[in-house]
Amino acid sequence: MRLLRSTDLALRVLMRLAIAGESRPTTRQVAEAIDVPYTHAAKVVAELQHMGLLAARRGRGGGLALTEAGRKVSVGTVVRAFEGHSEVVECDGTAPCPLRFDCRLRGALRGAQEAFFASLDPFTIEEMATAPAGPTLLGISSSTPQAWPSQRSGPKTS
């Protein structure tokens, strides 16, 4: 299974904020720290704020901070929110599969997808940001630019 870039980015933003301590970095500073385009980071930050996982304040003394819910949220919950509940395979798309009504593979793949999400449920963002990841997150610089193709950046709705 491959995660959407927005899911990966959401997890990295949350982990970066988990090690921020008392500082309140701006969205631009977080984007630079984790080496992603500001526009992508801003979309993900807005969704994470909407989910109640981080707080954002504008102006002097503003910036981003994790909420208590953001520290305690499970990785599985974040991944589910950003990945959505779409099927692993497109059985009913523009060229529907002729087996779609009698196929057992669809159910098996749905079960595998849920097992993947469930395997992430025991881990919190706070736990993911502890050593060795925490010190590494603090040391990341934006010296190596990444290519981030345009892609839907918010969670799926079903």
Care to describe what's here?
By secondary structure, the chain is mostly helical. The protein contains 8 helices and 2 strands. The protein has a two-stranded antiparallel ribbon with strand order 1-2. A hairpin with a 5-residue loop joins β1 (54-57) and β2. The longest helix has 16 residues, at 105-120. The chain starts with a helix and ends in a 19-residue tail after the last helix.
Q: Biggest sheet: strands side by side, in what order? A: 1-2
DSSP strand (E) fraction? 5-15%
Mean pLDDT, nearest integer? 84
The beta-strand count equals 2
Question: What is the subunit organization of this protein?
Answer: single chain
Q: Major β-sheet, in short? A: 2 strands, antiparallel
Query: Would you identify the regions where 5 or more consecutive residues have pLDDT less than 50?
Result: 141-153
| Backbone structural class | mainly alpha
Please give the radius of gyration in angstroms. Answer: 18 Å
SSE order, as H and E?
HHHEEHHHHH
Give the overall form.
elongated
Question: How much helical structure, as a percent, in the residues?
Answer: 40-55%
Distance between the termini: 19 Å
Number of distinct helices: 8
Core attributes:
158 residues, mainly alpha, two-stranded antiparallel ribbon, 8 helices, 2 strands, elongated
Short recap of the structure:
By secondary structure, this protein is mostly helical. The protein is built from 8 helices and 2 strands.
